[in-house]
Structure formats: C-alpha cells, structure tokens
Design goal:
NTF2-like_dom_sf; single chain; 3 helices; about 25% helix
Length: about 170
C-alpha cells in the first residue's frame, strides 16, 4: 500500500466511525448494521467500571461495579437487538476524538478513539439513571470487505462517568 492509499484507508475508517456515531444517535439501526461485519464482537463489559490505564478504579468514593461479561456480544443481530433494548427512547449524543489508526495490512486496521457520550432517559424510564455523561475510549479492529471498511470488533471503556440519578 503506497502513502496515498494509506491516507485514503485512514480517512475511510474515520468516516466509518463518524457514521457509527451518527447512526447510533439517530437510531438508524439498518444504517448502523451496515457498518459491521456479520460476526463482529462488541465488548462493553467494562463500560461502567471506570479505571485508569493500570486497571485501578478511578472513583474511590463511589465503588464501580465489576466487569460484566454479559456485555460481550457476538454477532451483529445480537448487537442490534441490544441497541434497541438499551437505547430506543433514550436521547444520546456520541463524539469520537483524536483517532489513532494503524494499518495492519491492506485489509485490516486497528483504532483507538477518545470518546464522550451523553445519554438522557425519559422520565418514565425504569432505568435508575436520568442522565449519564461518560468519557473514555473505543478500541477497535477494522477489516476491508469488498472494498469497504467495516468494524470487526469494538471495546468500550470509560475513565469517568458522571450520573444524575432519579
């Protein structure tokens, strides 16, 4: 891959991630589905366990729950069903910043994105949170399929979570 092709691949992956945030926030689940390979792996097992880079809990005044392996999802159909369950009716705003994208080969890449998300549940929601503001990272692996970059795996971790409880 020459320098121009590398830059084009990196730009295509940035656009892929931008579409991820947009389609999630717009609840465009069919558009969202198209961004992933069929047998993707999504790991949000530590998304509510704020830790520093060494794995030490950050918020000592509020014990964080342990990692939850129920939040490791395999397959796009299961992931889309989970998105419906957890996010339909929830106002969400997701931002990705400062991508660190490495091309592993012509058809595989990894990425690390700083992220920020804000979620607001309806007043009548059963969720004990009213609002959540999270800060963390996405660690991802991408593959090129039929000339298009897609997300093969994603791990979301947060280093800080601000919550407003009901």
């Amino acid at each position: 891959m020459n320098a121009t092709e590398r830059l084009e691949a990196i730009e295509a992956i940035k656009r892929l991630k931008a579409a991820y945030f947009r389609t999630m926030d717009m609840k465009d689940w069919e558009g969202f589905r198209d961004l992933f390979i069929t047998d993707c792996t999504i790991d949000t097992s530590e998304a509510f366990t704020p830790m520093d880079a060494a794995g030490k809990p950050i918020e000592a005044d509020r014990p964080a729950p342990p990692p939850n392996n129920d939040f490791i999802i395999r397959g796009i159909d299961t992931f889309i069903a989970a998105q419906h369950f957890h996010l339909d009716g929830v106002s969400t705003v997701h931002h990705g910043h400062m991508p660190e994208i490495d091309l592993v080969s012509d058809d595989e890449a990894t990425g690390l994105w700083a992220m920020e998300d804000k979620l607001r549940w309806p007043a009548d929601s059963a969720n004990p949170m009213r609002e959540m503001h999270g800060y963390g990272h996405y660690r991802e692996r991408y593959v090129r399929v039929d000339g298009r970059w897609k997300i093969a795996s994603l791990k979301l971790t947060r280093i800080r979570i601000d919550m407003v409880m009901k």
